[in-house]
Structure formats: structure tokens, C-alpha cells
């Protein structure tokens, strides 16, 4: 294989890895997403890219937007709503803790 091909392959591999890493993190941050959802989504993306030869960015676009769409498709609405409520409570408690730290409590 020519050096240029190796360089191109390395760039494609790095782009694929970066896209997948960002996609997984953003997906895991979505309300109601658990490990099973992340694994299913990664399998779907990996299979599609293996079958078509496309890079994830080419096939699915921005990893952040893709994560939101996948979560909406794979997470039941009631579980996502519970996740949003839980996140809101955690954020409120965190805000109270920081306010107490500032006040010296």
C-alpha cells in the first residue's frame, strides 16, 4: 500500500473514532439513555458503516444531532421524561450546594 493510502486510511480511522466517541458521550447524556441503548446505537452505526463503507459523519451527520435523534427513537417517552425530571432535581440540588458553599454554610 502506498504511503498516501496509509495516511488517508489513518485520517479516516481517526475521524471515525472521534465521531463515535462524541456520539457515545452525547447519547449517554440524553435523558433515559442507558448502557443498552448506547450499545444498540453503536452496533447500528458500526454495522451500517461496515456494510456501506461510509464514514459515520457522511452517513449520519453531526454526532450531537444524531445522538438526540437516536435517543428520541430508542428511548420510550416515559423513561425519557423520568430522566429529565431526575436531571432537573440533580441540577437543583447542585445549585443549592454551590449556594451554600458561597454563603459559607
Report on the structure:
With 105 residues, this protein is mostly helical. It has five helices and no strands. It has helices at residues 3-28, 35-52, 56-60, 63-74, 77-103. Helix 1 (3-28) packs antiparallel against helix 2 and helix 1 (3-28) packs across helix 4. The longest helix is centred in the C-terminal third of the chain and has 27 residues, at 77-103. The chain is elongated and about 60 Å long. The termini are far apart. 15% of the residues are buried. The model has no long low-confidence stretch (mean pLDDT 85).
What are the low-pLDDT stretches, counting only 5+ consecutive residues below 50? none
Strand content: under 5%
Please tally the helical runs, counting DSSP H or I stretches of 4 or more residues: 5
Secondary-structure-derived class = mainly alpha
Average pLDDT: 85
Taking the sheet with the most strands, its summary is:
none
Report the radius of gyration as a whole number of Å: 19 Å
Gross geometry: elongated
Q: From N to C, what is the helix and strand string? A: HHHHH
Helix % is over 70%
Straight-line distance between termini? 65 Å
Report the count of strand segments: 0
What's a quick, concise take on this entry?
The chain is 84% helix and 0% strand. With 105 residues, it is an all-alpha fold.
What is the fold's blueprint, element by element?
Elements (H helix, E strand, L loop, with lengths): L2 H26 L6 H18 L3 H5 L2 H12 L2 H27 L2
Amino acid at each position: 500500500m502506498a504511503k498516501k493510502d496509509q495516511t488517508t486510511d489513518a485520517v479516516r480511522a481517526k475521524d471515525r473514532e472521534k465521531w463515535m466517541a462524541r456520539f457515545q458521550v452525547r447519547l449517554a447524556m440524553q435523558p433515559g439513555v442507558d448502557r443498552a441503548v448506547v450499545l444498540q446505537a453503536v452496533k447500528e452505526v458500526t454495522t451500517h458503516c461496515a456494510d456501506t463503507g461510509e464514514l459515520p459523519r457522511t452517513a449520519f451527520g453531526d454526532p450531537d444531532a444524531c445522538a438526540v435523534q437516536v435517543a428520541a427513537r430508542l428511548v420510550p417517552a416515559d423513561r425519557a421524561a423520568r430522566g429529565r425530571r431526575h436531571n432537573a432535581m440533580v441540577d437543583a440540588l447542585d445549585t443549592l450546594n454551590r449556594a451554600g458553599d458561597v454563603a459559607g454554610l
